[in-house]
Known about the structure:
outer membrane lipoprotein receptor (LolB), chain A
Amino acid sequence: MPRRIHSYVFLSLTVVAASDVKLLVGRLEARYRSAHTLQATFLERYTENGRQTRAEAGTVYFRRPGKMRWEYDSPEKNLFLVDGKTAWFYVRADRTVTRVPAKESSDWRTPLALLAGEMKLSRVCRKIQFAADEAPESSADAVLFCELKEAGKSVQDHPAIAGTPNATEPSDKVYLEVVPSSGELVRILVKSAGGVSIEFRFAGWQYNPQVAESLFHFSAPPGVAIVNGELPGN
């Protein structure tokens, strides 16, 4: 194939791909932007060098503007809550709660509050394209790669992976698995250059469920110590 024709074909495919990405991102954003409250079950997995080191599961709630509640049921009952201004992490077994301004939290769950905000991926992604190095778990899904705006953020900052050395790369790789026909978010995968990854899988999305506003406010139970600072392990 002559170079000029080859270049034209490549350019055409690039334009089509960019158009498809824009369409899928718009569908994803529209699906979650239309709801005031969201609810789903989740599975959170941590992997180091291809080996799963920890898995947790529970129910997550999102509410506008910028509030969310992660109720962990397995293997232990814990709570991570963002009330719009403050991030709270409550360890029931230790009877302690750590609080930190949400804007200062490096925990990977915090950016997911965008599901309860303007729902614009451009707020956290500098660039979005189809992933070339990560296959979807379902052949019917599509995987988007998000190039983060915030350089230096590491999945290793997550409290569940405390003790691992800091990544040397400027940022982690973030992937979003989406159902193309509906825009439903199935999975978020964050890969660190250090071989550590964290994955969030979602199922059973409910839109505008009947959930009390009090669910998004934290009140420390009697006898529970409150610690100011970053989440444990950071």
